[in-house]
Amino acid sequence: MKLVVFDLDGTLVDSRRDLADSANALLLEAGGAPLPEDAIGRMVGDGAAVLVARVFEASGRERPADALDRFLAIYDERLLNHTRPYPKIAEVLAALGQRARLAVLTNKPIEATRRVLTGLDLARFFEEDCVVGGDGPFKRKPDPAGLQHLMTHAGVTALETALVGDSVIDWRTARNASTSVYLARYGFGFDGFPVDQLQGREWIIDSPEQLLSVL
Prior knowledge:
alpha/beta; 6-stranded parallel sheet; two-stranded antiparallel ribbon; 9 helices; 40% helix
């Protein structure tokens, strides 16, 4: 592979607690009861607006008009409270960076994405223009536009590209762009993934280190 593109939440970093704490703080503001952390983790992947909508739907509370803005403000204050890279991520990125170009493709807003990468000392592995967020010029995953942009920027083909993610969203993105995909069983977006539907250049990994033996 000449280009390896990573999802962020649930793939590079475990951000589930900070996301869940922020969503529950928003619910409490609206008079609702908190939801379990793992339940909120399963709602992550389609961007902040969809997460907020799912949280209020699950809680049975009416969503305030400013719910998204409030969530982003709350999460901005909690962004790095508990979020950490998954074990050996830095070592894996350092090794893979010797073999291929590395990129990030996430539905998370770009400002928050850069703050997480910088705060956890992961930004050094990715060129600035190789980080694509969910609020930029490209449609969010599973639309392939962001992934295709990264391939064009790197001058590589779909056959030379692998997407590493943890959710159905990432799986569909790779399919839509005709790239390989490696799905992280360790990620919080993997729960309920339809493993029996994998085919072709689609694989599961149980740890970040496993990438070093398959890429």
